[in-house]
Amino acid sequence: VSLTLEGALKALLESKSLSISVSRDVPPGGTKLPYCTAAELSLALDPMEDGGPANGAEATGSDLLQLDLWQTWKVADKVVESPTLADAIERALHGASLNFGTPNKRVYSVLLNHPRIRRVDRDANLTNHTWTLDLRRVI
Amino acid sequence: MSEYLDNTAFLAALPGAFAELVVDAKLINRDRAQKIAANARRYVHVGDPATDPHSGQTRDAIEVTVTSAGDVEVGTNPEKVRNEEALAEEFGTSKMSPRSFMRPAIQEETG
Q: Taking CB atoms and an 8 Å cutoff, what residues of chain B touch A62?
């Protein structure tokens, strides 16, 4: 079981034959493109039941997470961005369940209910696909 | 355009060219829009006024407006902060992680 959510996402993608690194916020120096970054945006707890987690009940909630795919845009004036990678990541993630952390924090479902956004950073020669993920998970 | 105010509507309402950071929904009432705007003002990054001459500029640009068609909009006023700056805050850039304020604000109001 991966220790981090980013590690669990990476393992999930690898299980779908997508070898791509997933880093929290900023990739380590030297990380080769393409890669993904994940940034937690906000977390909303579900309404309290059974006395709440302070009394032994499981705490669950919705974790809003931004996942970005970064790819080289052009080489020698020719577009080299993969036309299929973003779709493949989307197929791998939508509806997936994950386990990470100690003690185990189960993600019951990764939901990609929000529109995907694509941007081009011409100055940095990068393309960027952005997903807003809803992670239904144990806190 | 969506009948419902949630993050799906927010992202779908973003024009392809990122013209404005605005959520636009026909059935939202103004009170709810004001709550989202207040949430967004709490979440938005505010620079240190001692070192940042534009400290609070994005926060102060978050407004609720009613269009001539009667739609209620929540978002940043492009006359008060450049859309590129607001969008860079919300979604990040290749050099900066996102410091999202609209999506958490909507999540807080809509669950």
A: 107, 111
User: What's the Cα-to-Cα distance from B69 to each of B24, B28, B31, B75, B111, rounded to whole Å?
Assistant: 11, 13, 18, 17, 28
H runs (alpha helix) in B1-111: 7-13, 30-43, 57-61, 83-91, 102-110
Chain segment B52-68, per-residue pLDDT in tens: 888 899 999 999 888 78
Question: What does the block give as tokens for B32?
Answer: 């709810």
Rounded to a whole number, what is the distance in Å from the CA of A122 to chain B's nearest CA? Answer: 11
- The secondary element (H helix, E strand) that includes residue A66 is strand A60-72
For residue range A12-39, what is the model confidence (pLDDT) as tens digits? Answer: 998 999 989 999 999 999 999 999 999 9
| Cβ within 8 Å, pair A39-B97 | yes
